[in-house]
Design brief:
Elements (H helix, E strand, L loop, with lengths): L20 E12 L4 E12 L8 E13 L1 E15 L9 E15 L2 E15 L1
Antiparallel strand pairs: 1-2, 2-3, 3-4, 4-5, 5-6
């Protein structure tokens, strides 16, 4: 049985660990009138190697957006080593570090034509 939302839980939880994770050919239709977004977001490939706190895990992502509002067609490719780092202080969320990152964004829309942007970084930290 799941613990009640308002009930304190004992701190016996273990950190998240995965042997690996792979998603292929996943799509989501979006129709959010309030945000002004309509279209399709897709993941052609998402691969994450063995994952555990403090461990560098290989990450590969190929994703695309085909939106009619705002008009946009874009593709994203990302390769990096992903590490989950402990929170800097109590109560804070853990942070992510991407090592040896290569990212490419191609597409058109939002007043951009023929976009082909590339990013190479030794380390990116997301807090």
């Amino acid at each position: 049985m799941w613990p009640a939302i308002n009930q304190p839980r004992s701190d016996t939880s273990q950190p998240l660990t995965l042997g690996s994770l792979q998603l292929a050919d996943v799509a989501m239709e979006v129709d959010d009138a309030q945000a002004g977004i309509r279209g399709r977001l897709g993941i052609a490939m998402f691969e994450l190697g063995a994952f555990a706190p403090g461990q560098v895990s290989p990450l590969h992502l190929q994703a695309q957006a085909e939106l009619s509002e705002p008009a946009m067609n874009a593709a994203l490719e990302l390769d990096a080593g992903l590490t989950l780092l402990p929170a800097a202080r109590g109560g804070a969320a853990p942070s992510l570090r991407l090592d040896k990152t290569g990212m490419r964004l191609r597409g058109q829309g939002c007043d951009l034509e023929g976009l082909d942007a590339r990013l190479q970084a030794e380390t990116i930290r997301l807090e």
